[in-house]
C-alpha cells in the first residue's frame, strides 16, 4: 500500500504506527511479516520509543550534532547532511505479524523520519 505524508519541518519524526496497523487489519493477514519502505534518499524509517516524546527530540538533536548542515560537503544541493542521516537511519523496517497484530515492544512505534523537509513524501507498506 502506498501512503502520502506531508512533513512540516526540516527534520522531524512522524509516528506512522497506526497507519501500518490499519493496513494490516485491512489486509486480513494473521501471521507473517510487514515491511515499511521509504523511497527517498533524504528520509527514512525507524522503530523507537513512542511513549516519551523527549526520545524523538533527543534522536533528532543527536543526528543534528553528529551530521550538521554546514560541514563543507561537496554535494551541490546542500543537503548532504540529510543524505547521511537517511543512510544511518535506513530506508526500511520489518516487523513480525502475529494474530493480526505487529509484535512491537510495549514502548515501540514506527516513525517516518524527515531530514530535508518540509516536503510531500511517500512510504510503502507490504505484508507477506
Task: Describe the 3D structure.
With 128 residues, this protein is α+β, with helices and mostly antiparallel strands. The protein has one domain: Jelly Rolls. 27% of the residues lie in helices and 37% in strands. It is built from three helices and eight strands, in the order ββαββααββββ. A hairpin with a 2-residue loop joins strand 5 and strand 6. It is elongated and about 50 Å long. Pfam families: YjbQ. This is YjbQ family protein. Belongs to the UPF0047 family.
Q: Quote the CATH topology.
A: Jelly Rolls
CATH class: Mainly Beta
Strand content: 35-45%
The value of Rg in angstroms is 15 Å
Q: Tell me the CATH architecture.
A: Sandwich
Q: Strands of the largest sheet, in order across it?
A: 1-8-3-5-6
Note the run of SSEs as H and E.
EEHEEHHEEEE
Structural class: alpha+beta
- The helix fraction, in percent, is 25-40%
* Structural shape: elongated
Question: How many DSSP H or I helices?
Answer: 3
How many strand segments?
8
For the record, what is the CATH homologous superfamily label? Answer: YjbQ-like
Flag low-confidence runs: none
- Quaternary organization: single chain
What kind of sheet is the major sheet?
A: 5 strands, antiparallel
| Overall structural domain count | 1
Distance between the termini: 12 Å
- Average pLDDT, rounded to a whole number, is 96
Organism: Acidilutibacter cellobiosedens
Protein name: YjbQ family protein
Family: Belongs to the UPF0047 family.
InterPro entries: UPF0047_YjbQ-like, YjbQ-like_sf
